[in-house]
Every structure is written in structure tokens, then in C-alpha cells.
Write a sequence for this structure.
């Protein structure tokens, strides 16, 4: 699952180095508690990206719920604020293996580059890129089978970052996650997702109406840092 959670009203959800560290600490603990494998992450100043495989149907939901219950009170106390931190519930997309899983790895870890925060993904401290490339140890991460299948150590993974994501694929990932429909081939959607009743594409029902309205609440086109 590709998960995005955004700061309310485009506000910062990380203001100090300690905020990033506390978030990652809680994420690590809760991923273990709810048996969710975290494959990739990126903590941007005003939003979060995760690539997660839960071991149960409600594992990711429980992890994100408890993560909010831990992190938001900490953040409010730390910065002398009150009220909500996140823009509603998190958004997520079920991701097919092969092409799309590896694309999500790249999409997530290239976020800081697209937002012009850094020139290279390994220059950004708060993502999984250096862990996934073996530049340092990151015990939060569990390699996805598609990453392991690349073989040849970390060279195969590094090669994926030699070129930017194709604009069409970038748009497909963004639209699927924001709208909550699966990211994958038509065969995957028909054979795996359709029987569950989940939404297959924009405008096609399959999820509760309230969730559909939540997906549309963002309004006008957000700025680059916020939407990437």
C-alpha cells in the first residue's frame, strides 16, 4: 500500500529534527506491533509517504490510527499548539507488484528532489533511500520481494534512480493514491480488486460515499511541495 498523510491546510507536520525522530520511533514500534512491513518512506515538511505491506486487512489502518494518537499530542505539546495536525484521514492505494511497486519506491524517495529540497535522493536525511541503497543501516525497513529480486546487491536499485520517473507514471501514481483506487494493470484490478468492492478508477463506486467525499476535500490544486 502506498500511503500519504498531509498536514492540515498545508501546514508543517515536522518543525524540528526531534519531530522526525519521534515520528520514526513511533512508526517503527507500531509497524512491529501491527505486523506491517515498511519498505520505503519519506517525511516531507508538510506530508508523509509510506510504502507498506500489512499482514492483515486492518493492519495499516490500526498502525496509522495509533501513530496519529501518539504523534499529534507530542507535536502539539512540543510546539505549543492545539487541534488537528493532519488533513483528514490518510489516503492510500493498493499497489500491484513488479513495475508499480518499484515505481512507488522511486516516487517516494524522489519526492525531495522533485520539490527542489535536494539535488539527489541520498542527500535527504528523512527518507528510506540511504537505507535501501545500503549507505546506512535502517532497522525500520523490510525489503519488498520486488526489491530483493533485482539482485546484484544495491546496484540494481541505484540504477532505477539514474532517470526521473516518466510523467505518465508519475501522474498515475499520484492520481491513484489521492483518489484511493488501485495502482496496477487492468488484469490486476479485475481479478484481485474488483471482487473486494473497492473502487477501480475515478468515478466508479466501490467505497463508502463518506470516503469518496473525503478524497475530494482538498479543493484547488496544491503547491508542489504539498502534493508531491
Amino acid at each position: 500500500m502506498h500511503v500519504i498523510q498531509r498536514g492540515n491546510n498545508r501546514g508543517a507536520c515536522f518543525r524540528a529534527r526531534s519531530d522526525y525522530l519521534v515520528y520514526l520511533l513511533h512508526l517503527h514500534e507500531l509497524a512491529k506491533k501491527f505486523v506491517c512491513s515498511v519498505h520505503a518512506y519519506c517525511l516531507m515538511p508538510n506530508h508523509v509517504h509510506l510504502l507498506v505491506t500489512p499482514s492483515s486487512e486492518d493492519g495499516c489502518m490500526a498502525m496509522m490510527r495509533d501513530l496519529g494518537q501518539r504523534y499529534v499530542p507530542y507535536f502539539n505539546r512540543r510546539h505549543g499548539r492545539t487541534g488537528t495536525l493532519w488533513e483528514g484521514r490518510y489516503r492510500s492505494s493498493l499497489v500491484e507488484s513488479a513495475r508499480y511497486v518499484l515505481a512507488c519506491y522511486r516516487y517516494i524517495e524522489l519526492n525531495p528532489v522533485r520539490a527542489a529540497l535536494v539535488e539527489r535522493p541520498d542527500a535527504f536525511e528523512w527518507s528510506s533511500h540511504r537505507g535501501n541503497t545500503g549507505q546506512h543501516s535502517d532497522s525500520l525497513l523490510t525489503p519488498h520481494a520486488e526489491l530483493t529480486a533485482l539482485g546484484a546487491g544495491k546496484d540494481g536499485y541505484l540504477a532505477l534512480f539514474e532517470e526521473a520517473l516518466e510523467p505518465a507514471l508519475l501522474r498515475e501514481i499520484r492520481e491513484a493514491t489521492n483518489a484511493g483506487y488501485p495502482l496496477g494493470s487492468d488484469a490486476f484490478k479485475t481479478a484481485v480488486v474488483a471482487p473486494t468492492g473497492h473502487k477501480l478508477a475515478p468515478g466508479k463506486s466501490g467505497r463508502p460515499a463518506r470516503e469518496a467525499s473525503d478524497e475530494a476535500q482538498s479543493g484547488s490544486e496544491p503547491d508542489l511541495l504539498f502534493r508531491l
User: Anything to note?
Assistant: The two ends are 17 Å apart (CA to CA). Residues 203-224 have pLDDT under 50 and may be disordered. Strands lie at 2-6, 36-44, 47-54, 91-93.
